[in-house]
């Protein structure tokens, strides 16, 4: 298929591969559970199997991969990963998948890939300078600069999770420290803040559901998290000067109303035209962005 490429999404719970057309449309898709507890070789075998099943439907070029973990931009090796993929740190993803597939492989972090996807075929279509934040169990971020991922010196540019955040002093971030943005504006942060106030251990999703159902404490927790996120994003706009900010992830819908209000209130006048946008690609964002990476234009 002329101009089509394969993009792969390696996550802690599921792995997906897709054939993506030259306009960013997903033409075919495969998915399987990630065998995370079976080790890196099993994870790579699953990714390679899904991708190989689609290679005949794509062109002869490289395969793109978005993966959990911080990726060394020079080598394609995982510099750091959480326990969602045990043993993933140190895995040479580029070399291992290229050997399995017999094709060149290009790899980046999954949030980076999602940002590329949203710039190519999603909420920020046509934008070349974008900040994306992914609000899920944790908080991730990515910067697209002039149409390409801004890697930084270690592959970690755009990680907004560890910015100091008001109201998070007693909440623990995923890094183990206190007072960071992820500790308040994430699914884990919602759960921790609600438990602190009520003594009730529930998930972040449950907090969002209780807020929608009228639980006063849950609403306060949700809206405080959204307002903190929105204010932080307004400050980052002044620092990074993007064309747009995109909010993705499973907790995005719950936080966006309050985040949008705070963002508009805090945005400096010189950046008043920079929109705060909900992501549009959903579960396809990473595979679409990985395909864009494979094209060699990102």
Automatic annotation (TrEMBL):
Signal peptide stretch: none
Assigned keywords, A-Z: Kinase, Transferase
Organism name: Micromonospora echinaurantiaca
UniProt name for this protein: Glucokinase
Pfam families per record: ROK
Alphabetized GO MF terms: kinase activity
Family: Belongs to the ROK (NagC/XylR) family.
Keyword Chaperone: no
UniProt KW DNA-binding keyword: no
Family matches, as Gene3D superfamilies: 3.30.420.40
């Amino acid at each position: 298929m002329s101009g089509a490429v394969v993009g792969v999404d390696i996550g802690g719970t599921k792995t997906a591969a897709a054939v993506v057309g030259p306009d960013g449309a997903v033409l075919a898709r495969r998915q399987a559970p990630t065998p995370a507890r079976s080790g890196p070789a099993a994870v790579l075998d699953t990714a390679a199997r899904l991708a190989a099943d689609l290679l005949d439907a794509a062109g002869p070029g490289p395969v793109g991969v978005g993966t959990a973990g911080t990726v060394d931009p020079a080598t394609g090796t995982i510099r750091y990963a959480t326990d969602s993929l045990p043993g993933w740190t140190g895995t040479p993803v580029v070399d291992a998948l290229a050997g399995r597939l017999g094709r060149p492989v290009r790899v980046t972090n999954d949030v980076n890939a999602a940002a590329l996807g949203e710039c190519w075929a999603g909420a920020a279509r046509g934008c070349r300078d974008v900040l994306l934040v992914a609000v899920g169990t944790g908080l991730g971020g990515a910067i697209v600069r002039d149409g390409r991922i801004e890697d930084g010196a270690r592959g970690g540019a755009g990680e907004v999770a560890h910015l100091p955040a008001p109201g998070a002093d007693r909440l623990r971030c995923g890094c183990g420290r206190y007072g960071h943005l992820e500790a308040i504006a994430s699914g884990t942060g919602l759960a921790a803040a609600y438990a602190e106030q009520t003594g009730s251990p529930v998930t972040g999703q449950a907090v969002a559901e209780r807020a929608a159902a009228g639980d006063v404490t849950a609403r306060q927790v949700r809206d405080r998290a959204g307002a903190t996120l929105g204010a932080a994003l307004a400050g980052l706009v002044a620092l990074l000067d993007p064309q747009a900010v995109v909010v993705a992830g499973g907790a995005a819908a719950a936080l966006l109303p309050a985040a949008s209000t705070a963002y508009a209130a805090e945005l400096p006048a010189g950046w008043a035209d920079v929109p705060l946008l909900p992501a549009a690609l959903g579960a396809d964002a990473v595979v679409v962005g990985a395909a864009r990476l494979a094209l060699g234009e990102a």
